[in-house]
What we know:
Blueprint: H1 6-12, E1 25-29, E2 32-36, H2 40-49, E3 59-63, H3 73-89, E4 92-94, H4 101-108, E5 115-118, E6 132-135, H5 138-147, E7 149-153, E8 156-163, H6 172-183, E9 191-196, H7 205-213, E10 222-224, H8 229-237, E11 257-262, E12 269-271, E13 279-281, H9 282-285, E14 292-295, H10 303-313, E15 323-326, H11 331-340, H12 342-349, E16 352-353, E17 373-376, E18 392-396, H13 398-407, E19 435-436, E20 466-473, H14 480-483, H15 497-501, H16 512-518, E21 522-526, H17 538-545, E22 548-553, H18 558-566, E23 570-574, H19 577-581, E24 588-591, H20 594-599, E25 604-609, E26 614-619, H21 624-632, H22 635-642
Parallel strand pairs: 2-3, 2-5, 3-4, 5-6, 8-9, 8-11, 9-10, 14-15, 14-17, 15-16, 17-18, 20-21, 21-22, 22-23
Antiparallel strand pairs: 1-7, 4-19, 12-13, 12-18, 20-24, 23-26, 24-25, 25-26
Helix pairs in contact: 2-3, 2-5, 6-7, 10-12, 10-13, 21-22
Bound molecules: FE3-S4 cluster.
Amino acid sequence: MTPRTLVQKILATHGADRPLEPGDEVTISVDQSLIHDGTGVTVGLHLESMNVDRVRPRVAVCYVDHQLVQIGTESNNDHRYLESVSARFGLRYSRAGNGICHQVHLERFAVPGDVLVGGDSHTPMGGGMGMLSIGVGSLDTAVALATGRYVLSVPRTIRITLEGRLAPWVSAKDVVLEVLRRLTVKGGVGAILEYGGPGVATLSVPERGTIANMAVEFGATTAIFPSDERTREFLAAQGRAADYRPLEADPGARYDQEIVIDLGSLVPLVAKPPSPDAVVPVSEVEGTPIQQVAIGSCTNSSYRDLMTVASVLKGRRIAPSIDVVVAPGSRQVLQMLARNGGLADLLDAGVRLLESGCGPCPGMGQVPASGSVSLRTFNRNFAGRCGSHEVSVYLASPETAVASALEGVIRDPRRLGEAPRISVPQAFFVDDSHITPPPADGRGVPLVRGDSIKPLPVTRPVAETLTGEVLIKLPDNINTDDISPSGARLMPLRSNIPALSEYTFRAFDPTFAARAKAAGGGIVVAGANYGQGSSRESAALQTLHLGIRAVIAKGFARIHRTNLINFAVAPLVFADEAGYEAVAQGDRLRIDGFADALREGRETVVVTNETRGTTFPVRLAFTPRERAVLVAGGLRAHLASAA
Ligand code: F3S
C-alpha cells in the first residue's frame, strides 16, 4: 500500500478514501463542531432558516468566551439566544467563565483521528490532539452542524519535521514564531502543516496545541500532530483514556514541501507590530519599555503556561510601572492554580486576574494607553486588534512575557537563571458542571431572540453584467478586523449587521459606509492576502449589506474568500500586478457577461475601466461548485436548488 500522510489517513476514514490532488473538492464527514459567542449567533440564525431538528456531529459545543465584558444588553441577549439555540438544536452549552473554546475543547472533547469543523479561525488548535480541525465561517459551520458534512478543498501538505529538544526558557510559542518567520503570513495558504519527527515526543499536548493554534496565521487550512504516548498521557490525566488512539504518518509518505526545525537551535522570539510574521529574536528588542503584559488567549493559557508564569513570579514582584493581566484559558486551569498555590503566587506578585475567556485578545477590555506598547502571549498583533490603532503589540511566549513583566521592559527570559519545569499533571481537576448538555429532544424549546438580534441581509445571484464604482483601494494583508472591527463596543453588534456595517473599513476611511450606500454599492479593490485573520462572517455580511458585488484582489485568505462566495459576493483575482496598479478609487468598472462567464467555466474575464478607457484581465479562480454557488445567489440558494 502506498505510504500515507496523517492527513490522508484521517480523510480516508471520513469519506475520502481515494487519491486526491491539491485543489480537488471532497465531501468529508464531521465528528465534532464548535461555535462561540463571537460568531455563533449567525450560526443560530442560519440553523433556524434551515429547519434543522437536531445537529448531526457526535460532539457539538457552543462556548461563551468572547463577550464577557457586557457593556450593554446585546451580549447577554446573544448568550440567552445561544443557550436556547443549543437546547433547541442539540449542542452542549459551555457557560460564561468556563473558558476559551479551543482550550476547553482540547481538554474535554478533542479526540485523535476525528474531524472537527469549528466557527473560529483558531480551530486548528485541536490538531495538537491529532484531530483534523478546520476553522470556517458561520454558514459553513451551520451546514456542517445540519448535515454532518463539510466540503474540503484539498490542500497541499507541508511536513514540518521537528528534531532535538527545546533549550530552557524556549517554548512552543517560539517554535510557531519560527515557522511564521520562515513561511510568513502567506506561506501556508492552501496548505495543511503536518508536524512529525523525533522532536514531537518532547512536546506535551498543550504545547502542540499552541503550535497548531497559529496555523491560520500562515494562512494554512490547519495543522496537525501525530497521536502518541504523550497524547495518551494527556487524555488519561483528563479522565478520557478511552478516547486515545495512536495515529501517525507512514514512513515514506510523500509531502508537497518539507521544513526541518532543530528545536535545540531555537532562541526566545518575538513578533513585532503590526504582523505575526515580523519575527526577531527577543534579544533584538530587549529594553523596549512596555505599559502592559497580557498573558492568556487560546494560544497560551494552558495549565503548563500559567504555572510557568506563576513559578517564575513566586516570591517576586512585577515592575510597578506596568499592568500585568492574566486570563486563564479554562475554569480547569484556574481551579488547578487556585488549589496548588499558583494563583496566590500570581496575586502576590501584583498580577491582575481576569475571567477565564478570550479577555483582551479581541479588544474586550484592557486596551492600553495611546502610544504605548503591550507585550502579549496572544496570536495576533494587527493594528487595531487590541482595540486601538495607537498601540503597538508584540507577541511572545509566556516565558518572555513574565521576564518582561518583572522589569517593565522587554527581556530575554534566559537571564532569569534556572527555568521551571512544568509537566502535564497526573490528573487534571475535572468539573464539567459549567457545560450544560442539551435535552434528548429539543424540538419544543422556544428560541429567545432579543431585539438586538437582527435578521441577516438577503443574498442575490451575481449580476449578468457586473458594474460598479471602486469604493476603496487597499494594500496587501487587509485582515477581517480591518473590514469588521471588534472590541467591547462593536463585537456585540455582530448580531446587527446593518448597525455594524457603519464601521466597515473605519480605520481606512470613516466615510466608507456612507459612500457605499450613496453609490448604491460598488467594488472593493485590494492587494494580496485579503481577509486574513479571524473567521468572522460579519466581514462578508457587511460587504453584502453595503451592496458590494465583487472584491478584486491580488489574492484572498481562505476563510474570508469562502465567506464571500457563500453570500454571492464575487472574489476576483487580478491576473497581474499591472491590473492592480491601473485602478484607482472612484473608477467605474464593468464586466460584460459576468454570470455567463461563471456558468461557462471561463478562467479569465476582461474588466473595462470606463473612467480611464482601459481594460485589464481578472481570474475567475473558482471550482465548479463555487461557480454554481455564486450564480445561484449564495450557498443557501445553491443547497436549496440541489435538494
Ligand atoms: Fe478568543 Fe482570541 Fe482565541 S478571541 S478564540 S482567545 S484568538
